[in-house]
Automatic annotation (TrEMBL), chains A, B:
Gene3D superfamilies, A to Z: Type I PLP-dependent aspartate aminotransferase-like (Major domain)
Lineage, broadest ranks: Eukaryota, Fungi, Dikarya, Basidiomycota, Agaricomycotina
Molecular function GO labels: pyridoxal phosphate binding; transaminase activity
Protein name (record): Pyridoxal phosphate-dependent transferase
Top-rank taxon: Eukaryota
Cofactor section: pyridoxal 5'-phosphate
Organism field: Mycena albidolilacea
Length: 535, 535
């Protein structure tokens, strides 16, 4: 897509007028903190007495280093036993990890090499890392226009909070999925920027619902102007785990902030254990060639962005280490400049230790090595997802059916959980035929974490206690039994409570080993069956 | 001071009402993002499926490590040659640095030990680092009330920007020194929070000027309510290098944000080279005992803060490494809670790599070692400051006189620079007697960097060109000759241009080696004399 547009770089003055999408706050930011200094700043040979930085002679670190796993530490294809046990064993137990050492010295012999002495004062971040993320956005997202920019931020939460105050004014609304990431909503709240929920289906935000909201918008009745901004988590949205596909993305394409920490972890469809052997290698493992791997992933909104409408947020949290607080924007130069000014008066730059170590690792691996690492990572999480669903299939009787039209699961294969027939000394009991009316819970096998709905209308006291109270009671009982779920209500952007929205729990298993998953599902099963009177 | 108050911890409801100092933005922040989760979050033995963090098994880092200088790497007393040359030689050249290695493994055997696997999800930061900064604030600042809190932030610029939106509303004013740190002003600008400059003298902000402004405040004429907040840089204020002493601090004590990156680097008074031998050990070296060292420093505003009015910003930028983006607040629990919420929706937590490495270093050194390190650091910067002023004394004829009453240098010893008598083949010329009327420039020997005023009224074209134009012309000529100064106008909070404020340059030498300082002063001397027609 970008090839045909490469000759026509994005120019705000020729394309749509993006400047009116800047908030008053963003417009009021200073033009550049260096003012007249720019002319001479960084000129080689100049003795600078303008900066005021401490002398690197007094940094206590002579060097920092790390032992880093090789890029091919994990397999990209499922092994015969279809679990990650053997790899975990190698990693945690007996077998030696295969690592390589990276070191960043305080002073480098060549100025362009990584060093600790020249870390600072660069709100754009390390030049080497800038180059790496630019190459990644270029090759992996292949944006629909040429002169997009990349800019480091301190993790997607930081990235989003700066975007909010860059493109939204107080009192305005932001279009969001009906279930979405609560911290993103919390960042808007103090500025009185309100979430406007849009109905979802198995692909996340519905384009038809979006169109209806926008065309029928009544500013007076709503108490706010028609929203100009969409907050989208198109891959593995938290909590629902939904993924928006190409056709839908093209429909939604608009001024859109794409918060996409899970892009490279797209896990594909869950295939029940019994059928996985027939499928041979899992679909999630993907082709071995790096270009084919990228083509196997749902593309970013950037790919269709020929007008510079998309601000994409990327993070190293899901692929390197969550506490590193390091990620990047990909967006048009107008927005990038305003976001850089926002960084200068807040975070300044991501931590130099983190930048150095991540950069040294990525330089050591190279682009191909990083893609290889990501491919394997996706398989690991896919196997965890599969194992978790396998556990549910053992603990309950699962049936599968297409999601109902008009429901949040339209377009997905929905799994329904029933109490298994119990065997007593004298025979079976509780041999209800699985029907929609005696389901205990439903879910769609997701990316990363999943959003499970318990059918409290099956509870004996539903009429008297109501769904809200039952949801809280069950959550506490599960916690008291030793397993902590995320309460669904946290993920409702407006905190609305309806019979349709009630009964949800967010279940994240990305950080659990198989034995913990198995134990958690057993506890959940026991507690749920008892709670629902389905023993 | 704190001992008598220790029995009466600060309680907002009993002391002054601090809650009305919270901005509308701060009040609108969510109460806690974890909501109901709090009850069970982190309970030992619970299997948590509520979080959603990646598995540490897939962090590519097996361990990170660093070679760290020993805490006693630098001397705390001046050596005979009174320069840092010998130490620099050891550091950069022949002699081997004395270092120790610190390593943070991915997994630790004891959960309370530093490790990479449990870095994340802690917006308060690493518990070990929390403990260290709490101990530091306790022992070094000795706050005037008991239940103050410390909270990590991502560097003082980040810390201040969060404070701005926590205690200021749009349209309000913040009291600042007449010359102050421009990035702090830039953080206020988009929110339409306006700097209200207060006259300064040799100790920084004047308490009498402050009182006059506040008592005579006319909200209508000023277009804003009477300010409630002071932004203070009490030690080595940028750009003036002034330090506020105890009596003044007690007068100013108020709701006050204390941005104090230079606290431990207080360099004491400059003593001319010729007199330093007589003084024996430099005053800056300070006593060897850690408690005496702390007592030798001007205390923090916290020391007099018995009502929880002060938010202190500390940073590791000046003492460990500037790019680490790591520091901490010390303030009352009410403000700390709101600031923590602000972190959760932006930076979340400082980078885990940086936290781990700084923490491991401080644990390795211990509190006494860190104080030992700081003491030596202060001496190193003092020697650089002394060497720089020595260079000026060689390049120019310097005289010293008390600052004029009512001027920004009242209470300081001001150095005035004159062209040295030049020797020709036939004798001396240019033998003007140094008087105020033929000074080229003036300055006060500062902490860290200094603010030098050139007397453009001595320039032959002063009447026709004016000070503003001459200031810019000289700045360019110095830059073209190879030395970059900070233009003074950058540091004017309101950008006012008067004959009193004109002619200033900020000169920072903290990051220069002696030979560079010498060269810079020679270039400055040559350029200035030529420019001023004083050859």
């Amino acid at each position: 897509m970008s090839s045909e547009l490469e000759a026509s770089p994005f120019k705000p003055e020729e394309a749509i007028d993006l400047s009116h999408h800047l908030s008053a706050l963003a417009k009021a930011r200073q033009t550049s903190p260096l003012k007249g200094l720019f002319r001479y700043w960084g000129r080689p040979g100049l003795i600078s007495l303008a900066g005021g930085l401490p002398s690197p002679a007094y940094f206590p670190f002579s060097d920092i280093s790390a032992n880093v796993l090789l890029a091919n530490s994990f397999p990209v294809e499922r092994e015969q036993d279809s679990s990650s046990f053997s790899w975990l064993w190698k990693l945690l137990g007996g077998a030696k990890e295969r690592t390589t050492s990276v070191t960043i010295p305080k002073y480098s012999t060549r100025p362009e090499d990584l060093n600790l002495a020249t870390w600072t004062g660069m709100s754009k971040g390390l030049p080497q890392l800038q180059k790496i993320v630019q190459e990644f956005s270029d090759k992996v997202y292949d944006p629909g226009y040429k002169n997009y920019q990349t800019l480091l931020h301190a993790g997607n939460t930081d990235g989003w909070s700066k975007v909010v105050i860059t493109i939204c004014n107080p009192g305005e609304g932001v279009l969001v999925s009906k279930w979405t990431y609560p911290s993103a909503m919390a960042a808007m709240q103090p500025y009185n920027i309100k979430p406007v929920p849009v109905d979802i289906d198995g692909q996340g935000m519905r384009s038809d619902a979006l169109r209806t909201i926008l065309t029928e918008w009544d500013a007076e009745a709503r108490g706010m102007p028609r929203p100009r901004v969409i907050y989208a988590v198109p891959i593995g949205e938290n909590p629902t785990g939904t993924t928006t596909r190409v056709a839908r993305k093209k429909e939604i394409y608009q001024i859109c902030v794409e918060d996409d920490p899970y892009f490279v972890l797209q896990e594909g469809t869950y295939v029940p254990k019994s059928q996985r052997a027939r499928h041979g290698q899992a679909p999630a493992a993907g082709p071995d060639d790096e270009k084919k791997f990228i083509e196997s992933l749902e593309p970013s909104y950037l790919k269709f962005d020929y007008q510079g409408r998309v601000i994409r947020l990327d993070t190293f949290s899901k692929t390197i280490a969550p506490g590193c607080r390091l990620g990047w924007y990909t967006c048009n130069p107008l927005f990038a400049e305003r976001l850089e000014r926002a960084s200068e008066t807040s975070t300044q730059q991501p931590c130099g230790f983190g930048q150095s170590l991540v950069t040294a690792t990525l330089l050591e691996w190279g682009y191909e090595g990083y893609i290889r690492w990501l491919k394997a990572l996706r398989l690991q999480y896919t196997m965890r997802r599969d194992f978790f669903v396998d556990c549910l299939a053992e603990e309950f009787q699962l049936t599968v059916a297409p999601g109902l039209t008009g429901s949040m699961w339209e377009g997905s294969q929905v799994y329904h959980g029933f109490a298994k027939p119990q065997r007593s000394l004298t025979g079976y009991f509780n041999e209800k035929t699985p029907t929609m009316s005696n389901r205990l819970f439903s879910f769609v096998p997701p990316t990363s974490g999943m959003f499970l709905k318990v059918h409290f209308d099956q509870h004996p006291s539903f009429a008297t206690l109501g769904a809200e109270s039952l949801e809280m009671k069950l959550w506490i009982e599960i916690a008291e039994a030793g397993v902590l779920f995320g309460p669904g209500a946290m993920f409702s952007p407006t905190g609305d409570w309806t019979s349709e929205t009630s009964g949800h729990y967010r279940i994240s298993f990305s950080n659990l080993e198989n034995d913990e998953m198995k134990k958690a599902v057993e506890i959940f099963g026991k507690t749920l069956r008892k709670f629902m009177g389905a023993l």
